């Protein structure tokens, strides 16, 4: 009788992370779509009562608060949420790269460990998986998008999304129109649309799906029930 196998523990861990990020993205976008874009009747009624004898002041305050609410819902909230998603995806790539390369070290008895390498996550992954372990590199377009995602994450974390303050400013400007859902606004700030979060999750998913297919790590034995 053949013993049934699951994918490796590392791949199962990756799949769980991918599912979590995908569900998180859907939750974010679902909640953003439901946030009221105008003052509620109760809010307007409270202002009507508060400034009943000052109609000009009341109308001005209502207009200001309506404009602030629209800014929050259409710009501020989506950017905070989508930036947090990009940072979360980049962190997942960093963690999964370490887990994957540690598994390669054990499975193939490689002479170096992940922590022996220097550089950023993608540089180390490239050296370890493709040069040291000899795995086939993923499609160039996928790797390029992973590099872009890393640069977007760095700009968000280290420069609060201000492209001019980023050491990758030239590259960040050049990728506008090439990385779906990514843009730069008139103030020079990174601007993320819904498609940007979806692409970030897709990059993580496709990159490590290909890596695990290439590595062929030993599967986990399915316990008998």
Record keyword descriptors for this entry.
single chain, 225 residues, mainly alpha, two-stranded antiparallel ribbon, two-stranded antiparallel sheet, 7 helices, 4% strand, elongated
List the helices and strands and how they pair.
Layout: E1 5-6, H1 9-34, H2 41-50, H3 55-108, H4 121-132, H5 140-159, H6 169-174, E2 182-184, E3 190-192, H7 194-215, E4 220-221
Antiparallel strand pairs: 1-4, 2-3
Helix pairs in contact: 1-3, 1-7, 2-3, 3-4, 3-5, 3-7, 5-7
What does this structure look like?
The chain has 225 residues and is mainly alpha-helical. 67% of the residues lie in helices and 4% in strands. It contains seven helices and four strands. It has helices at 9-34, 41-50, 55-108, 121-132, 140-159, 169-174, 194-215; strands at residues 5-6, 182-184, 190-192, 220-221. It has a two-stranded antiparallel ribbon with strand order 1-4. Strand 2 and strand 3 (190-192) form a beta hairpin. Helix 2 (41-50) runs antiparallel to helix 3. The longest helix is centred in the middle third of the chain and has 54 residues, at 55-108.
The major pleated sheet works out as:
2 strands, antiparallel
In spatial order, strands of the major sheet run 1-4
Radius of gyration: 23 Å
- Beta-strand percentage range: under 5%
User: How many separate helices?
Assistant: 7
Element pattern in H and E:
EHHHHHHEEHE
**Sheet/helix structural class:** mainly alpha
Average pLDDT, rounded to a whole number, is: 92
User: Helicity level, as a percent range?
Assistant: 55-70%
Amino-to-carboxy terminus distance: 15 Å
Name the overall outline: elongated
What is the tally of beta strands?
4
Poorly predicted residue ranges: none
């Amino acid at each position: 009788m053949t013993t049934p196998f699951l994918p490796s523990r590392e791949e199962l861990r990756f799949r769980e992370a991918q599912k979590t990020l995908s569900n998180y993205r859907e939750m974010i976008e679902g909640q953003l779509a439901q946030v009221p874009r105008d003052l509620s009747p109760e809010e307007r009624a409270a202002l009507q009562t508060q400034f009943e004898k000052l109609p000009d002041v009341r109308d001005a305050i209502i207009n200001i608060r309506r404009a602030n609410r629209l800014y929050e819902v259409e710009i501020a909230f989506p950017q905070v949420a989508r930036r947090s998603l990009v940072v979360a995806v980049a962190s997942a790539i960093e963690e999964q790269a370490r887990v994957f390369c540690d598994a390669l070290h054990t499975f193939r008895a490689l002479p170096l460990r992940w922590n022996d390498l220097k550089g950023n996550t993608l540089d180390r992954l490239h050296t370890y998986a493709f040069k040291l372990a000899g795995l086939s590199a993923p499609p160039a377009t996928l790797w390029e998008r992973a590099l872009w995602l890393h640069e977007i994450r760095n700009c968000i974390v280290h420069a609060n999304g201000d492209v001019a303050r980023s050491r990758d400013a030239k590259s960040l400007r050049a990728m506008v129109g090439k990385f779906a859902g990514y843009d730069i606004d008139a103030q020079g700030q990174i601007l993320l649309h819904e498609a940007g979060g979806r692409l970030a999750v897709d990059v993580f998913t496709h990159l490590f799906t290909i890596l695990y297919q290439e590595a062929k790590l030993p599967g986990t034995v399915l316990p008998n029930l």
